[in-house]
Amino acid sequence: MPKITVVTMDTLTDDQKDKVKEIFVDSYYKEMKALSPKKENLLRGFTHVLREEAIHVAMLDDKPVAMAGCSTNKRRSMQAHKTDFLANFGMLMGPFGTACFKKEFETPLQINDDTLYFECVATDEAHRRKGIATEMLSELIRTLPYQTFSLDVYNTNDCAKRIYERIGFKETGRKKSLIGKIFLGYQENIWMSRPKSL
Ligand SMILES: CC(C)(COP(=O)(O)OP(=O)(O)OC[C@H]1O[C@@H](n2cnc3c(N)ncnc32)[C@H](O)[C@@H]1OP(=O)(O)O)[C@@H](O)C(=O)NCCC(=O)NCCS
C-alpha cells in the first residue's frame, strides 16, 4: 500500500488543484456528460464547484491521487456556479445543470452537528485498486473531530459499497431516485454510516 498524506485542497498549488479537478471530472464523467460530453468544457464548467477548504486530498509525495468532499449540516463541499455552467454547458443544459446541482448539493443535510458526510469520493484512475480510497477515508475518520460519519452510494456502485462496508459503514436507509433512474441508470441512493470508534 503506497503511503499517502491527506491535506485540504486550499493548501495545494494551482497545478495540484487542477489535478484534483481532473480526478473529479474523470471519476464522475458518467454523471456529468449529459451537461457536455467534452472533458475540457466540464473542467471549465466545474472550475469553482469544489469548495477547497472542504475537499480533502490524498497525496502521494506531491501528487494528488484521490479526493473526498467533507460536508456538514452547515456547509456542503460543493456549490453550483451559474455563470460557469451557462458559459460551458449552454443555454439549455447550463440552467438545467445549475438547478439540479443546487437541489442536490446546496440543500442542507439532515444530519447532526457531530456528523460528517463524505461526498464526491474519487481516486485517480491510474491509482485505483491500491487501497488509496480505503486509507484516505480511514485517515479522515481517525483524525477529523466528528462522532459519526455518513455517506450515500448508488445501489449499482458495488465497488464503492464494498469499500465502505469494509471500512465499517452500515446501511441505514434507501431512497428512490427519479434523476438516477432517468439519467444515470440507478434506482436508489443507499445511505450508510459508522461511528468514529467501532
Ligand atoms: C470507488 C473508488 C473511489 C475506489 O477507489 P480506490 O482507491 O480504487 O479504492 P481501494 O483501492 O481502497 O479499494 C478498491 C478495491 O481495490 C482492492 N485493493 C485494495 N488494495 C489493493 C491492492 N494492493 N492490490 C489489489 N487490489 C487492492 C480493494 O480490496 C477493493 O477491492 P474490491 O472492489 O474487490 O472490494 C474509485 O473506484 C472511483 O473513483 N470510482 C469513481 C467514482 C465513484 O464511484 N466514487 C464513489 C461514489 S459513492
From TrEMBL:
SUPFAM superfamilies: Acyl-CoA N-acyltransferases (Nat)
Gene3D superfamilies linked to this entry: 3.40.630.30
Top-rank taxon, per record: Bacteria
Keywords, alphabetical: Acyltransferase, Transferase
Keyword Methyltransferase tagged: no
Residue stretches making up the N-acetyltransferase domain: 7-197
Pfam family, any one: Acetyltransf_1
Gene Ontology MF terms in the entry: acyltransferase activity, transferring groups other than amino-acyl groups
UniProt name for this protein: Acyl-coa n-acyltransferase
